[in-house]
Design a protein that fits this description.
alpha/beta; two-stranded antiparallel ribbon; GH; EC 3.2.1.39; 534 residues; 2 domains; glucan endo-1,3-beta-D-glucosidase; Glyco_hydro_17_plant
Length: 534
């Protein structure tokens, strides 16, 4: 029973740590139109070191899919625009495509979505657009034949924002009339299969059409007066929300408001051609960092409050072979040597050391000088260095001395961390003592004898008990409780006999309470005393 409780406690704290670091709504686009990219294995390790939980590929490169196996990262793979005609006209080709690009890797590689085509409506090819829905249906049928349907792997396509006739104000947005019939069929498919309507909103390109300073702040999630939609009377504080709500309004206008929206691409270039306004490192950092903070807040959008949308940043790397303007080759968050282009807090260790959950086990107690103790001068009890909640800036400013008292300005978070550590050590000590062999009483006697060597202050055995609690972090939990400063010495008996009655009573009460803590069961009457001792 106690083992189960102990396991649940560890699981609880592990879940809290995981939730505080993971961002399940955040993904990244991993394009391969370059000749200088690191190997897929290195990219997979890089992704694991970040808070990205999803990755989108534009194709189905087997080396990349294999490298992502057993990482837990969700994968969106793509069927190219060139594959659409074959997938649409030949169901056997669709089955072959699934058997080649999906079946060998699933479920080790966590493929969750197949994007059939990318921004097909932007090419103005009506024939290709008309083949999109049949291609998606054949891929869905092939997945079901491979027992990968039923929501295991979904099918959709990705749209450009120009599929809308307009997006300002958001409440008036509708799809372009020339795409209405095709989009209605695609949305019916999305609704029936539960797949998302994927779209690529880019405030950067909206800024190119309106280069006022207030528009830049509006695009970068910075302070601005906001914009009110006169029809809905909703106030928008950033362009991203306005663009996403414009898509939602268009879906609603066709009767598909329940279809989920997925942001398949969004980002900001850190450089570009001279005529590309706002393409700077500072703006790219501001957009991506503020976007992540906005998504993490869970506030949603004015039309969809509290709704967090899966969002894929563009892009993991620069793609130096992409055609077009300079900005097309300058969206990368990381360089080919795996260093950050600019820091937006993506690494899992970001701010971990600064916020300092501190050592989860107490620092090893400082030992007194190695002079041999005598009956006349016993060594002072070792000083316990508790886990410090001090940040580097606090330490440098002299606000806190870890060797003295607790800082006056200690925050509630620091106190909670200290209590969590103490509670964890307490439960470990209870569990170990309850399962100890029958020779435990003799160990207790030695502990009591050593505790008498202190002049009514913190006993050396307390230090040993704390060190015993380190077993939770993989230290040696089975070491006996020994005196850290000297071998057991009969001279401690004479020191005990010379104690005043009040100190003797205090030591006896402490021994009794410690004995209660080592003797199960622990109940509500004595748990407070045990916590104070431990």
């Amino acid at each position: 029973m106690r083992a189960s409780v102990y396991s649940l406690i560890l699981l609880f704290f592990s879940c809290l740590l995981h939730l505080s670091k993971s961002q399940p709504f955040l993904g990244v686009n991993y394009g391969l139109t370059a000749d200088n990219l690191p190997p897929p294995s290195a990219s997979a390790k890089l992704l694991q070191s970040t808070t990205f939980q999803k990755v989108r590929l534009y194709g189905s490169d087997p080396a990349v899919i294999k490298a992502l196996a057993n990482t837990g990262i969700e994968i969106v793979i793509g069927a190219s625009n060139g594959d659409v005609p074959g997938l649409a006209s030949d169901p056997s080709f669709a089955r072959s495509w699934v058997e080649t690009n999906v079946v060998p890797y699933y479920p080790a590689s966590k493929i969750v979505l197949i994007a059939v085509g990318n921004e097909i409506t932007s090419f103005g090819d009506n024939s290709l657009m008309s083949q999109l829905l049949p291609a998606m249906k054949n891929v869905q049928t092939a997945l079901e034949a491979a027992s990968l349907g039923g929501g295991k792997i979904k099918v959709s396509t990705v749209h450009i924002m120009t599929v809308l006739a307009g997006s300002d104000p958001p409440s008036t947005a509708v799809f372009k009339p020339e795409h209405a019939d095709i989009l209605k069929g695609l949305l019916e498919f999305n609704s029936e299969t539960g797949s998302p309507f994927a779209v690529n909103p880019y405030p950067f390109f909206a800024y190119q059409d309106d280069r006022r300073p207030e528009t830049l702040a509006y695009c970068l999630f910075q302070a601005n007066p906001g914009r009110v939609d006169p029809n809905s009377n909703l106030k928008y504080m950033n362009m991203f929300d306005a663009q996403v709500d414009a898509v939602y309004s268009a879906l609603n206008s066709m009767g598909f408001k329940d279809v989920e929206i997925m942001v398949a691409e969004t980002g900001w270039p850190y450089k570009g051609d001279p005529e590309e306004a706002g393409a700077t490192v500072e703006n790219a950092r501001a957009y991506n960092k503020n976007l992540i903070a906005h998504l993490k807040s869970g506030s949603g959008t004015p039309l969809m409050p509290g709704r967090v949308i899966d969002t894929y940043l563009f892009a993991l790397y620069d793609e130096n072979l992409k055609p077009g303007k300079g900005s097309e080759r300058a969206f990368g968050l990381f360089r080919p040597d795996l260093t950050m282009t600019y820091d937006i807090g993506l690494t899992k260790t970001t701010n971990y050391n600064q916020t300092s959950m501190a050592p989860l086990s107490p620092t090893r107690p400082r030992l007194p000088p190695a002079a041999a103790p005598t009956r006349q001068t016993l060594p002072s009890p070792p000083q316990m260095i508790l886990p410090s909640p001090v940040t580097p800036s606090d330490k440098n400013s002299g606000q806190t001395d870890v060797h003295n008292s607790t800082p006056r300005s200690a925050s509630l978070a620091h106190i909670c961390r200290a209590l969590s550590i103490s509670a964890s050590m307490f439960f470990v000590s209870v569990f170990k003592s309850s399962t100890a062999p029958s020779s435990a009483p003799e160990s207790d006697k030695r502990s009591e004898k050593n505790s008498n060597a202190d002049e009514g202050s913190t006993s050396q055995n307390d230090v040993a008990a704390v060190n015993k609690g380190k077993g939770i972090l993989g230290h040696s939990p089975n070491k006996p409780n020994v005196n850290l400063t000297e071998k057991p010495n009969k001279s401690s008996s004479s020191s005990q006999r010379s104690r005043p009655p009040m100190q003797e009573n205090k030591a006896r009460v402490t021994r009794e309470k410690r004995s209660v803590c080592r003797t199960p069961p622990i109940n509500t009457e004595n748990i407070f005393d045990c916590l104070m001792i431990c």
